[in-house]
Amino acid sequence: YNKYKIIYKILIGVILILFQGVFPKIFITEDIIVSIDALLIFLTFLVLLNETYIIIILAFILGLFQDFIIHIEVIGLCSFIKSISTFCIAYIKKSQSLWSKYFKIFYLFLI
To answer: Is the Cβ–Cβ distance between 42 and 92 less than 8 Å?
Structure first.
């Protein structure tokens, strides 16, 4: 696997994490805030187009960086969630012929 492609993907992920801090947020209550997770959307495209295990490791590294930048109070939670989500999304790629298109989309929204 080309090391420049990996560095390029890490750079895009870091830029998305930095922009995620300024994305609009919806305040439902004082404790519940909803925002767009651009990094998870980026990782979804990567895992569907590239090798799975490299992207899972990349998701862990970028999730850990996101923990250090945005969610400092829960170190490790984003890295764990990004890794597990990437693994679950990769399951769609492995079972392409078993599921219908609509069930795959439903499964993505469940993740």
So the answer is: no
pTM of the prediction? 0.78
3-class DSSP string for the chain:
CCHHHHHHHHHHHHHHHHHHCCCCEEECCCCCEEECCHHHHHHHHHHHHCCHHHHHHHHHHHHHHHHHHCCCCCCCHHHHHHHHHHHHHHHHHHCCCCCCHHHHHHHHHHC
Query: What would the pLDDT profile of 18-60 be if each residue is shown by its tens digit?
Result: 888 788 888 888 888 888 888 888 888 888 888 888 889 999 9
